[in-house]
Amino acid sequence: MDKAILINNVTKKYKLYNNTKERLLDLITPKSYGEDFYALSNVSFEANKGDVVGFVGINGSGKSTLSNIIAGIVPETSGSVKVMGQTALIAIASGLKEELTGRDNIEMKCLMLGFSKNEIKELEPQIIEFSELGKFIDQPVKSYSSGMKSRLGFAISVNVNPDVIIIDEALSVGDKAFAEKSFEKMNEFKKNGKTMIFVSHSINQMKNFCEKILWLEYGMVREYGSVEEILPKYEMFLKKYKKMTKVEREAYKQEAYERQQAILEI
Ligand SMILES: Nc1ncnc2c1ncn2[C@@H]1O[C@H](COP(=O)(O)OP(=O)(O)OP(=O)(O)O)[C@@H](O)[C@H]1O
């Protein structure tokens, strides 16, 4: 099987500051201020070409951080990340320039992906049509609603024919009709053997669309395997988690952070 994504021991460390003064002082004397926070700790997983992998996990478990690292938007602190081919990330805030119009954003993104001016001219009408933005395509993106931004991001990404497509919650803000159209396009990609990563809190979408599930918990891999194996376990966990009191959730988190510390010390 050809590998499409190889993630080996990836860690992402952020610094958390108590106030702006600390943040500024840390720029002058690095390492003196702020507390280390690990959004990802030694995450490893592989996906084959054509796999459709869903990332699940409660809020803050590291799904977007890992998606952004795979897309090359956020650098990893340590570990190795290999992605074969061109990646397209579709997220609610996926690098659109707010001051530029929708049309200028299309051009900019396509240029960044290496398309020539002539190729962009050919692609542009189909991107605009897919986005259904009408006259708004010539308005600055800052005037768009989050659903409109998501439409534009989606329309660009799916029409530039990437090898690896990452969809991070982008379908949660659009309307139902656009989401359905987007799913059709994603199914077409699936049939054509594209590798896809799908981040969503909707268990049904995961069930219908993904083949494998990566379950993240406080920045660590809890489980990775087939949808049939992992999703029922995750659903059971969610039921239990929802019933936990605030104190129980805090204790659960604390226990996870202790495990994280142990992993990081190895
Ligand atoms: N730039 C940053 N600086 C500090 N901490 C960050 C930064 N970006 C993300 N984090 C933290 O990293 C952790 C993982 O965040 P991430 O957005 O990857 O989680 P998620 O699983 O996608 O969450 P959600 O389901 O809420 O979208 C969170 O605790 C978040 O606060």
Automatic annotation (TrEMBL):
The keyword Manganese does not apply. Keywords: ATP-binding, Cell membrane, Membrane, Nucleotide-binding, Translocase, Transport. InterPro entries: AAA+_ATPase, ABC_transporter-like_ATP-bd, ABC_transporter-like_CS, ABC_transpr_TagH-like, Bact_Polysacc_Export_ATP-bd, P-loop_NTPase. CDD domains: ABC_KpsT_Wzt. Pfam families: ABC_tran (PF00005). GO terms for cellular component: membrane. The keyword Zinc does not apply. It comes from the Bacteria. GO terms for molecular function: ABC-type transporter activity; ATP binding; ATP hydrolysis activity. Residues 22-243 form the ABC transporter domain. Belongs to the ABC transporter superfamily. This is Teichoic acids export ABC transporter ATP-binding subunit TagH. It comes from Lederbergia citrisecunda. The gene is tagH.
